[in-house]
């Protein structure tokens, strides 16, 4: 389906001198750059002009677009209240027009701080209305000159999208949008240039795999992909790309930050010890992925028991049987005080993880609306307690001798192993 073209222009107080505006191979001699852009470049389906009461409505839009544009009046933006009033007015007036449309902006004649303010509007409609921003034009008029180049400032929006994508990664562990940003940039390059961006292509591919690993709890894949990213960033071809291409230089700055993030510290994890699991679970906690944190903690707990007791991690039937038996053992059946303490620790950890996992599996359906906030706080506290309990269990130590006693006890009580 073909998208509607919407042209949105800012109008100041003028007057505007006649000059030859040039964009690419197209040009026009006019006082009003918006007229040139509409007539020769965009050829829009609808036109929206944003200005104040003092803007030169009669001299420009009324003259050049008689009865063919929508007028949006906003305050000067002299204070915070006026800025918000202007924002609301603009959004209410344009929201229906820009939805699912191609949108072009001309900020050449924006009054005072309005061009900066309108950038926020551009960003928002791009996100919430699925408006495709096709151009942000600015006519570079210089007094006394006969010509003025029109530049497209859309790359600044692309940079903002890149920053937003990277912040999403730092906040939530999601690098999908960053990968897509790089893919989109690569697809826009001429084929003969794409070979010089092999490092960027490899980086984009690894980022997508990294995101998939994070979302699916592919624990052992995640550290490998972090290491792959580190290797790619060390390649000479990508260093050269970062240096030569200003857009990719921006990407390099973000990855300098990545190297200092908590995600980067996971590169050496092999999940051969309990600390790797608890650290990864803590990262999931930071991004509010509680169910995934619980799955990681359970895997870490099972792995620790398996390693300590000499049971293969793949032998889940035997491990589950041991856990089940230990949870059913009554304290009266245990004479050794230290063994009794360890059994209690194992029992409490298994029980706490199990209860929370079960609640998460049923989508916390028993929670009422007014308790949702307190529930999150409670979950965070309980998961942090589980992490601490696991740490305490590791410090207490689970020797082969202790494991043998535990297995013997479980066999006597349940006969499961």
Any overview of this molecule?
It is a single chain. The chain has 417 residues and is of the alpha/beta class. Helix content is 59%, strand content 11%. It is built from 17 helices and 8 strands. An 8-stranded mixed sheet has the order 3-2-8-7-6-1-4-5, sandwiched between helices. Helix 4 links the parallel strand 6 and strand 7. The mean pLDDT is 85.
Helix-strand blueprint:
Blueprint: E1 5-11, E2 19-23, E3 26-30, H1 33-42, E4 46-51, H2 61-64, E5 70-73, H3 80-98, E6 102-106, H4 114-128, E7 132-139, E8 147-152, H5 154-172, H6 176-187, H7 191-194, H8 198-215, H9 221-233, H10 236-244, H11 246-258, H12 274-286, H13 290-309, H14 316-328, H15 337-361, H16 372-396, H17 400-413
Helix pairs in contact: 3-4, 5-6, 5-11, 6-8, 8-9, 10-11, 12-13, 12-16, 13-15, 13-16, 14-17, 15-16
Structural class: alpha/beta
- Tell me the fraction of residues in β-strands, as a range: 5-15%
Overall helicity? 55-70%
Mean pLDDT, to the nearest integer, reads 85
Short description:
This protein has 417 residues and is α/β, with parallel strands linked by helices.
Keywords:
about 425 residues, alpha/beta, 8-stranded mixed β-sheet, 17 helices, elongated
């Amino acid at each position: 389906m073909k998208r509607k073209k919407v042209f949105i222009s800012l109008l100041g107080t003028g007057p505007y001198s006649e000059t030859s505006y040039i964009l690419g191979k197209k040009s026009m001699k006019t006082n009003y750059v918006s007229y040139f852009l509409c007539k020769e470049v965009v050829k829009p389906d609808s036109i929206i002009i944003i200005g104040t009461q003092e803007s030169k409505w009669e001299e420009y839009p009324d003259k050049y677009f008689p009865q063919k544009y929508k007028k949006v009046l906003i305050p000067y933006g002299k204070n915070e209240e006026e800025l918000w009033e202007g924002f609301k007015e603009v959004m209410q007036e344009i929201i229906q027009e820009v939805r699912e449309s191609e949108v072009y902006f001309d900020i050449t004649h924006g009054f005072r701080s309005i061009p900066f303010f309108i950038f926020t509007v551009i960003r928002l409609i791009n996100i919430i209305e699925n408006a495709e921003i096709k151009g942000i034009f600015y006519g570079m008029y210089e007094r006394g000159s006969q010509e003025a180049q029109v530049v497209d400032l859309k790359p600044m929006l692309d940079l903002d999208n890149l920053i937003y994508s990277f912040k999403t990664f730092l906040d939530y562990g999601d690098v999908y949008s960053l990968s897509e940003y790089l893919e989109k940039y690569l697809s826009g390059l001429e084929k003969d240039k794409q070979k010089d961006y092999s490092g960027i292509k490899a980086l984009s591919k690894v980022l997508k795999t990294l995101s998939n690993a994070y979302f699916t709890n592919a624990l052992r894949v995640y550290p490998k992909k972090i290491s792959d990213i580190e290797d790619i960033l060390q390649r000479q071809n990508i260093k050269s790309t970062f240096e030569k291409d200003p857009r990719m230089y921006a990407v390099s700055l973000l990855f300098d930050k990545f190297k200092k993030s908590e995600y980067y510290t996971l590169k050496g994890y092999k999940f051969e010890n309990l600390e790797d699991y608890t650290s990864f679970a803590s990262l999931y906690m930071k991004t509010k992925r509680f169910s995934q944190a619980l799955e990681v903690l359970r895997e870490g707990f099972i792995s620790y028991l398996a390693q300590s007791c000499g049971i293969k991690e793949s032998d889940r039937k035997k491990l589950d049987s041991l856990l089940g038996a230990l949870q059913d053992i009554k304290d009266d059946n245990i004479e050794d005080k230290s063994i009794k303490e360890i059994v209690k620790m194992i029992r409490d950890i298994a029980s706490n993880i199990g209860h929370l996992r079960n609640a998460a599996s049923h989508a916390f359906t028993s929670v009422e609306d007014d308790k949702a906030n307190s529930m999150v706080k409670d979950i965070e506290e309980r998961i942090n307690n589980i992490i601490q309990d696991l740490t305490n269990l590791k410090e207490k130590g689970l020797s082969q001798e202790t494991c043998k006693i535990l297995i013997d006890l479980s066999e006597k009580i349940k006969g499961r192993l």
